[in-house]
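Repro:
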Amino acid sequence: MSSRKDLKILIVDDKPNMRRTIANMLRQIGYKNIRDADDGDTAMKLLMSHKFDFVICDWNMPRMKGIEVLKKMRSDETLKPIPFLMVTAEVEESTVAEAAETGLDGYIIKPFIPETLHNQMEGILEKRKNPDELETKFQLGMTLFNVRQYDQALTTFQNILGIAPNSPRTYHAIGQIYEEKNNMDAAQSAYQKALELSPKFIKAHECLAKIYEKAEDSQKALKHIEAALKISPKNPDRNVQLGKIQLTMGESQKAKEAFDKAVKLEPDNAERLTEIGEAFLETGYSEDATEAFQSSLDLNPENIHVYNRLGIALRKQKKYNEAITEYKKALEIDPENEYVLFNIGRAYQEWGRKKDAIKYFKKALELYEGFPEAIAALKELGENA
């Protein structure tokens, strides 16, 4: 990174007066290389096309909030390392927790003075430039974990505990290693120790919820996912996880409410709608699955997999004609998709229309010679492949 006063800084705020105020403050404390953006969309375009060394971003903006800018940056390997300072008037625990989870470097509360801005920026930059010994060791442990050198990573984290025995994130990292080594008892113990040290450690709650979910202990899974959501309620993934757990417990109305929250938080996420559809389908709520798959296709009408899943949901309701209509929409996209042709055959077979079923099973076999499911289906109907 270049010398601090030469850093290229991006200010993101929808209010022109606030952009000018922050820019003036930065000039007062010696920063000269400053650009600004009036919303999150513009900021992302600038970040993708220009090099920046620091981002100062408002929390509340139309179209794309500051937290969404942060999430997009942290999910991009090129933008991920850029320090991010959030400007906010909000100080609610859930707001701070959500930002911290996403990798926020710091936040500053309106109104503020140049000295406050200067101190925040210097603190962030100093920490980035000169991490302390424990931070260096922790990052080494995470690097070893990411390249699957689990035993070496475990030794590194255990050494950290020798120096700092009350580090909840170190216990959380150890739990992740044990999960990868398929030692769930040790993983569970490590996550629980992290929570003893820090009861509001969201990631430990989340990991325990997943372990209990896999163990089919829905009550304990529910307890931990609800605890995580109480701390940081605006997380769509956790709301989906909550809904899935509630479905397994037969609490369909509560599950729908959790799924609705997830969709409201990210209304344009087709993959999440598909995931919700799959959860409904797996637990026998085929009408709700149909609605979720249709909403997913509204956002992404080219996804053949979702047409197939929608067709299955409709067939479970004995809506064979509607299922075939959806399958044929998929064929318009990919006319030679043997799996869609096979599913049309299945729909006709379940509908009792034997000749049509045979026709489509044979079409599938023409495209995929030796298609085992199609051969078996034809045998069921007394027809040679």
